[in-house]
Design a protein that fits this description.
By secondary structure, the chain is of the alpha+beta class. Helix content is 31%, strand content 28%. The longest helix has 18 residues.
Length: 151
């Protein structure tokens, strides 16, 4: 994963700028608990599909080990349902790795039923409430055109 170092003010560490972007796009009408739940589910897919996104394990000063996390920030955006549909189509047309969460998944309680609910609907008919993607910064920016940062 390539990064560039951005200049910093005197006495402060340089800030890395990543060549890639991890982004989550949520439908704007979700309840707060749904936003958190959908985001957590979506980013878990990216960590397994793009293993280089995951950094090294953490440890505190006492040597207690903690799980590794993403090596770069996850940016969360929101938009109307139509925006999710168009962003989904743009991401697929650019062959970006994409995780999806559909409205039907709020009514299921396990992975098997989640996958069956998505599999039952054609791509164009998915009732998307969230998606996560990873790719080159400029490509992700084009896919998310029209989305706004989550407040």
């Amino acid at each position: 994963m390539d990064t560039h170092t951005l200049p910093s003010a005197a006495g402060t560490p340089a800030v890395p700028r990543f060549d890639t972007k991890i982004a989550v796009l949520l439908r704007e009408d979700l309840q707060p608990w749904q936003r958190l739940n959908v985001t957590a589910f979506l980013v878990s897919g990216l960590g397994t599909a793009v293993p280089e996104l995951i950094g090294e394990p953490y440890a505190d000063a006492d040597g207690t080990a903690y799980l590794p996390m993403f090596r770069q920030p996850v940016l969360v955006f929101e938009g109307a349902g139509e925006l999710l549909t168009s962003a989904h189509a743009r991401a697929l047309s650019r062959s970006l790795p994409v995780a999806v969460f559909t409205a039907e998944l709020f009514g299921t309680g396990n992975d098997r039923d989640n996958r069956a609910a998505v599999r039952a609907v054609p791509t164009a008919g998915l009732d998307l409430v969230g998606l996560a993607l990873h790719g080159p910064r400029n490509t992700v920016d084009k896919v998310l055109k029209g989305a706004r940062m989550h407040p």
